[in-house]
Amino acid sequence: MIIDKNIGFIGLGNVGSKLANSILLANYNLYINDLDKNKAEPLIKKGAIFTKSIEELVKSTSVIITCLPSPLIVAKIIEGQSGIINYVNKNHLWIEMSTTDEHEMTRLSKLIKSKNAKVLEAPISGGQHRAESGNIAVLAAGERSSFDRAFPILSEIGYEILFCGKLGNASTLKVITNFLALTNLLSLGEGLMLSNKYGIDLETAFHAIKISSGNSFVHETESKVILSGSYNVGFTMDLACKDIGLFDKLAKKFKIPTKLSNLVFEIFKYGEKQLAKKSFSTSIIKLLEEECNEKLRSSNFPKLLSDNELRKKFFEIKF
After folding, report:
1. Residue 76 burial (CB < 10 Å; 0-12/13-18/19+)?
2. What sections of 5-143 are H helices per DSSP?
3. Domain-by-domain residue ranges, the chain?
4. Residue 108 to residue 103: CA distance in whole angstroms
5. What's the gap between Cα 186 and its chain centre?
6. How confident is the model over 220-248, as pLDDT tens digits?
């Protein structure tokens, strides 16, 4: 098995920067690249090497990880004029950690494989606070041999790691989980608003939902920043619309009459127009607050989410 010590990481956004930091803390040689070098400065101070070009990054590493905001940007990084495809060889493994289009993932993987390089998709789920602590879930798909090669790196990034089978499976499952989370967010807003209108203390309502059949990961995290008024989940409205759009595209492909996802997509597209593309996805609840002339606010809730649990021992989920 190839021993990979030199890792390249492209895309240092809210989540990517935290994943890259976990790799750096594991004593890998980390080569990084982002259009905005300012995002790289904290990692550079810790020992990461900023590369001025994709060519330099690829030629310095054996594993290249991308964590980017859209399928269009991923395609540009892979097959653009100075893209990864121009420099990879049989020694390279590309790990795609973005939430992306399964069709694009398959297409781009064929390009990479034409250069005899290996491919693995490994999107993560759990929010940027868990990306920072390392207690995040990783959904991986591709050839099992590529997963086995990547596992030492993935185990530094995440906690629960699931091999999902063939390429495209992980991308599709990530889109599904994001759709479910965003649908849950809308229902939580309406549930909390009903509690508020009825006169139930919102802190009481939060804990009632938490111990009930209506509880969820979204409630235990995103409800907190709604009630604090910060809405800060580090995930923006344009990304929410992109992910629901990917779900909608898959539903149409398989002719599934998804009435619920159509409505959720419509609500978030309206929210993106009213609140701005870079507003937090949780700020969709502001529209409900405005219509009801009520603020969903309660003390004792954090402005920022944090994972206070110690780093958990990684493991592969097997069943």
Report:
1. middle
2. 16-25, 41-45, 54-60, 71-79, 102-113, 128-133
3. 6-167, 172-292
4. 9
5. 19
6. 999 999 999 999 999 999 999 999 999 99
Would you state the structure tokens that stand for residue 255, as one six-digit string? 């002719």
What architecture does CATH give domain 172-292? Orthogonal Bundle (1.10)
Tell how strand 118-121 and strand 137-142 pair up.
antiparallel
For the entire predicted model, the pTM comes to: 0.95
> Which among 51, 30, 234 has a CA at the least distance from the CA of 132?
234
User: Which residue in 213, 204, 229 sits closest to 282, CA to CA?
Assistant: 229
* Type of residue at 218: V
> Tokens 């101070």 map to which residue?
45
Dist. CA 302–CA 221, nearest whole Å: 10
The alpha carbon dihedral of 175, 180, 184, 186 has a sign of: positive
Q: Which CATH architecture has domain 6-167?
A: 3-Layer(aba) Sandwich (3.40)
| Distances 253 to 172, 247, 299, 305, 311 between C-alpha atoms, Å | 12, 10, 45, 36, 40
